[in-house]
Amino acid sequence: MNLGSFSSGLLTGLREGVEAALIVSIILAYLARTGNSRHFSRIWLGTAAAALVSLVVGTGIYVTTRTLPNGTEQLFEGGTMLLAAAIVTWMLFWMRRQAASVKGELQARVDRAVTEGSLWGLAALAFMAIIREGIETSVFLVGQADSADASAPSIFAGALAGLAIAILLGYGFYRGTRRINLASFFRWTGIALVFIAAGLLSKGLHEFIEIGALGSGPWTVTAFDLSGLLSHDTGIGAFLRALIGYSATPEILTLGVHLTYVVAILALYLRPVRRTSPPSQSPAPVRS
User: Fold this and answer.
1) What is the C-alpha to C-alpha distance for residues 13 and 7, in angstroms, rounded to an integer?
2) The total number of structural domains that make up the chain
3) In angstroms, rounded to a whole number, what is the distance separating the alpha carbons of residues 121 and 110?
4) 144-158, pLDDT tens digit by residue?
5) For residue 265, is it within any domain?
6) Of 43, 112, 186, 203, which is most buried with the most CB atoms under 10 A?
C-alpha cells in the first residue's frame, strides 16, 4: 500500500463524495419535511444509476489506457491527466460560486417534480445532480491512477475509503448533524486538491515531453536534480510524488507550469466570494 497514493485517492473520494452526499441529503430531507418520504426510492434509483454510469465510464477510460501501444499510451495518459486537472479546477470554482444557492435550486426542482406529478423526474433530478460529481471523480481518479502507475490500487482503495466516510457524513447531514463546518471543509479540501491537480498537470506535460510531443528545447531540460537529497522513488519523496506530483528531476516546463498553477489558482480560489445583489429598480416616473 502506497500511503501517498492512498491519501491522494482518499482526499478525492472524500471531497467529491461529500458534495454528492450533501446533494442527496438535501433532496431527501426536503422530501421528508414536505411529507413526500414515499418518493425516496426514486432518489436512490437516480443516485445508483449515476454511480453505475460513472463507474463504467471511469473503468472504460482506465482499461483503455492499459491496452494502448507504448507511445500512444503515454499520449493518452498525459491527455487524461491534463483533462483531470482541468475538470477539478472547474469543479472547485463551480462549487465555490454555487455553494450559496445550490440548496434553494434543488428544493425548487423537487417542488416542480412533485407538483407536476413527474415522479420519475425525481429520479432524473438525482441522476443529473450526481452524474456530474461522478464523472468528475472518475476522470480525476483515472488521471491520478495513470500518474501513480503501480500504485493505482492504492489510489482506488483511498477513494473507496473517502467515499465511505462521505456516506457517513451524508447520513449525518440528513439527520441534522452540524458538527462539521462545511465552509471550512470545502475550503481546506479544495486547497489540497489544487496541489494534487498541479501534480497531475506537470506529470501530464512530462509524459508529452518523454515521447517528444512538445519538441526539444530549453523547456525540456532538467531544471535541477535533487535525487541525492530527496529522491521521488523512495521514502518521503515517493509519498510526495504520489500525493502532489513531486519530482526530484523536473523539466523547466513542468516546474514552471506547476508553480504557476499553484500560485495563480490558490490566489483566485482563496479570494473572497462576491455576493451579487439584485439590481435595484429605478422608481417609475411621476406623471403630472
Assistant:
1) 10
2) 1
3) 9
4) 777 766 677 888 888
5) no
6) 203
